[in-house]
Amino acid sequence: MKELEVKVLNIDLKEMESKLMSLGATLIDKELQVNTLIDSKENFIQGKLDSYLRIRETKSTLTKDTKLTLTMKKNINREGIRENIEINTDISDKNAILEILESLGYYVIQEGFKERTSYILNNARFDLDKWDDLTYPYPYMEIEVNDEDELKDIVKLLNIPKENISTKSIVELRKEKNLL
């Protein structure tokens, strides 16, 4: 699946959620996530592939459903908008997958905990994210769109300052803040 997204930094999540609701956005879900990043000791996936491998455990606070997903996310462009190829598969046993990956030379490099509230408005997805303080103590919003024109319209509609828009990954943001 191809994904076009940006992060909006330096925002108040409650204020942004109020804006989205006042514009008629539809709540998709509220989640508690455990994100487990995996790489080799040489950081092959991140360093050589400009990608990351993740196991995400998602628990919906609305439905109480829990889901485990293995994802390989490959960055293919960062000019103006972050473009990724995302390959996902549901898994049933996190420990078994981790054991398989470890036997292949891939290990858990970081585990982070995130609260996410997601909305849809005008075919765009908005994820309001708050990580645990050790992972990334600054809240942000991800906007996922179908094309750059749609992003421009949303930025204007929500009155988002251009300097708050980032195409950086969470790993890059963590490096910037010396959180690695």
Automatic annotation (TrEMBL):
Domain CYTH: 1-176
UniProt xrefs under InterPro entries: Adenylyl_cyclase_CyaB, CYTH-like_dom_sf, CYTH_domain
CDD domains named in the record: CYTH-like_AC_IV-like
SUPFAM superfamilies to which the protein is assigned, alphabetical: CYTH-like phosphatases
Gene3D superfamilies to which the protein is assigned, alphabetical: Hypothetical Protein Pfu-838710-001
PROSITE patterns: CYTH
Name of the protein in question: Class IV adenylate cyclase
